[in-house]
Specification:
Largest sheet: 6 strands, mixed
Distance between the termini: 139 Å
Oligomer: single chain
Number of domains: 3
Number of strands: 30
Length: 476
């Protein structure tokens, strides 16, 4: 006997009599009411500035039941003043909506809603509600030259826009990469077109970029890196042959325009460095008879540097004028540092002239012996001799060519001379600096005293300028 179907029929009849409908037999719900939080509320999804935000206002009673047909007043704040934005009526689900265009300023996107209530319900009001902004992407573009001539400036410009190309007015920060780190250099304000510019004067090859902070409506921005190479203002010396054997720290930057020579008494700090090196007990001149010359010169790399040397007070003006004319003629100098920086040399009983020559250094006063002639005092001990571009202009000492032999048979129109007609030799001669030994000591010039008979304006080519030991033999 099969009992399945009769049991189903009986159970269904009993359920109908009891007023209960099984779940499987219940009709599907249609249009179930959305839950609405009690009270009055305003909301909107994050929206881009300049776009319309779909603002939703909901109203429900204390039991959470939607209030339909309610007239709601929506206000928007401008500054400290509230102004009506719209009056909307709630639908059956207790909601009403309106579009509001958001601005870039969060304080301009503040709204509130009020309801006057009815016979059975109290009035409702929201507090100030800030409609959320959705941030746009930022874009920064840099324009400017890729090279700058040293000691000059170039214009660098930036344009700040959104990813959609809308200009942005605000603050942008120019950054400069130094020692591996980005450092803030300047803060600029872009105009209504999103543009700003400034001038930079980097003294080395450099990298630059712009950045912006995150805004309520805009993401932070960063431009691509803009590289600016520093190039020399002068012409570079092209040489073959061996390089100097001694390296020096990078020379000081030039100061002022042109050669800008400055002659002073020897400062205490400099004198302390000279003592025990370029000056010591028994020297024929002392601090009162010496002067410090600081002067700009053209380096072999085409850049301007500031050099210094110590010379006798009686001739330092002549040396200054000659070096100034070399600067004006674009005739470069490899290096010009005080020779005391090379330390004491037992070999020459003074500052290490061998090291100075091996570095191609230009110098004057050095109370020492003649290179290769122990016991014979050099003309440099009186501060009246100048050794110039020593690497390219060797000296023939008693034990061979110093500092190298490669350059002895070679010349260069700007830095190495083998004839009295060379421009450098001619400039030296015009200021009373005699190329005393010619090819025997190409780097060496001796200052010729001014002639007292002619008012001190003319140099006496026949006046004695050397120690007696050096009248017949080469002394440096």
């Amino acid at each position: 006997m099969v009992l399945g179907k009769p049991l189903v029929v009986v159970s269904t009849l009993l359920a109908l009599v009891a007023g209960v409908v099984p779940a499987s037999a219940a009709p599907a719900e249609r249009g179930a009411a959305r839950e609405v939080p009690p009270g009055l509320a305003v909301s909107a999804p994050p929206t881009y500035a300049g776009a319309q935000a779909p603002v939703s206002v909901t109203l429900a009673d204390e039991a959470g039941e939607p209030v339909a047909g309610a007239s709601l007043r929506v206000e928007r704040r401008t500054g400290d003043t509230w102004a009506e934005a719209a009056v909307v009526t709630t639908a059956e689900d207790g909601t009403a909506s309106l579009p509001l265009t958001l601005t870039r300023r969060p304080e301009d996107n503040v709204v509130r809603a009020t309801w006057a209530g009815d016979e059975t319900r109290e009035p409702q009001a929201t507090g100030p509600v800030t409609l959320p902004l959705r941030r746009r992407n930022a874009r920064l573009r840099v324009k400017g030259p890729r090279e700058v001539v040293d000691e000059t400036s170039v214009r660098v410009a930036v344009r700040w826009t959104t990813g959609a190309g809308e200009p942005v007015a605000g603050q942008v920060t120019l950054q400069h990469k130094r020692k591996g780190r980005w450092r803030d250099a300047e803060v600029l304000d872009t105009d209504d077109r999103g543009r700003a510019h400034t001038r930079i004067a980097p003294r080395d090859d450099s990298r630059w970029r712009f950045r912006t902070a995150r805004q309520p409506w805009l993401e932070r921005g960063r431009s691509p890196v803009h590289r600016v190479d520093n190039v020399p203002p002068g012409s570079v010396v092209r040489l073959g042959g061996p390089d100097p054997r001694r390296d020096l720290p990078r020379a000081s930057r030039a100061e002022g325009d042109g050669a800008s020579p400055v002659i002073t008494r020897v400062p205490g700090k400099v004198w302390r460095s000279m003592k025990g090196r370029t000056w010591h007990r028994g020297c024929p001149v002392g601090r009162p008879q010496l002067r410090l010359l600081r002067i700009n010169y053209w380096g072999y790399d085409g850049y301007r540097y500031r050099g210094e040397l110590v010379a006798a007070a009686s001739v330092v003006g002549q040396m200054s004028a000659a070096l100034r004319d070399m600067y004006d003629a674009g005739l470069p100098i490899r290096s010009m540092v005080r020779v005391d920086r090379f330390g004491w040399s037992k070999r020459v009983q003074g500052a290490d002239d061998y090291a100075s020559m091996a570095a191609g250094n230009t110098s004057a006063f050095n109370c020492r012996n003649v290179v290769g002639r122990p016991g014979v005092r050099s003309p440099h001990a009186w501060g009246r001799a100048l050794d110039l571009n020593t690497w390219e202009n060797p000296y023939r000492s008693s034990h061979g060519l110093v500092p190298n032999s490669w350059w002895q048979s070679r010349s260069h129109p700007r830095v190495a001379w083998r004839s009295s007609n060379h421009r450098v030799v001619a400039i030296m001669r015009s200021h009373g600096l005699r190329w005393t030994y010619g090819l025997g000591d190409t780097q060496h010039f001796d200052a010729v005293p001014r002639s007292a008979k002619r008012g001190g304006d003319v140099h006496d080519e026949h006046a004695p300028v050397l120690p007696p030991e050096c009248n017949t033999e080469v002394c440096d």
